[in-house]
Amino acid sequence: MTQPQRLTIDIYSDVMCPWCLIGYGQLTKALEELDGEIEAQLRWRPFELNPDMPPDGEDQESHLQRKYRRSTEEGAAIRGQMKSIADSAGVSLAYEGESEAPPPMMWNTRAAHKLLAFALEEAGPKVQTELKLALFRAHFNERRNVSDPATLLDIAASVGLHREAAKAALEDEELEARVIAEEQQAWDLNISGVPAMIVNGRFMVPGAQSPETYVNVLRRVAEKSAA
């Protein structure tokens, strides 16, 4: 029986990025189609859409109007489109809390990226992906403050990471320097928006693509890697 071709996919993304969650959903559908043919290891790499975001955050509506000069109506239309695409990708951008929905916020994500880097080093790619999805859920579906250290430690513990080790990671200046260096590496690779996926360290797939596109790209990369 032929063994599946193994690929590594480094995903540059931000916790605040809805297209990153959509891209993951589309990629997951592609990998399901490629089951038995291609086996992929995912690793999440840091990219801050708003590195200068203050600790108190900013409400999403004001942020998007200021950054992209969108009207309220334009913003609502784009959010509706993204929600529909997310649903088709098998992921959700909808608030799922039991209480009245608080206004969506944008947060500083440096600490979240430090936690993700710690998870990869400490527990490996599978747990790192579990943490990334838990952070997406906390931000989009639960509207929690994912810049708050206590919230981040709760999320880390929920995926099995040791709470005190995670706390030490959040306070680790050397780890922060490595995260910053990885973010600079993204810019060196001409990544100016996310998601951006680097397959086998060589082939870049920018943006959230359709499952069919991911299937085609991964098959081509697998063929080149096997040659």
Main attributes of the structure:
227 residues, four-stranded mixed β-sheet, two-stranded antiparallel ribbon
Sheet with the most strands? 4 strands, mixed
Mean pLDDT: 94
How many helices? The count is: 9
> What is the N-to-C order of secondary-structure elements (H for helix, E for strand)?
EHEEHHEHHHHHEEH
Structure class: alpha+beta
Q: Which descriptor suits the 3D outline?
A: globular
Helix content: 40-55%
Approximately what portion of the residues adopt beta-strand conformation?
5-15%
Name the poorly predicted regions.
Answer: none
Distance N terminus to C terminus? 19 Å
How many beta-strand elements? 6
Main sheet strand line-up: 2-1-5-6
* Gyration radius, in Å: 18 Å
Describe this entry's structure for a reader.
By secondary structure, the protein is α+β, with helices and mostly antiparallel strands. Helix content is 55%, strand content 13%. The protein has nine helices and six strands; from the N terminus they run E-H-E-E-H-H-E-H-H-H-H-H-E-E-H. The chain has a four-stranded mixed β-sheet. Strands 3-4 form a two-stranded antiparallel ribbon. Helix 1 (18-33) links the parallel strand 1 and strand 2 (38-46). Helix 5 (125-141) packs across helix 6 (149-158). It starts with a strand and ends with a helix. The model has no long low-confidence stretch (mean pLDDT 94).
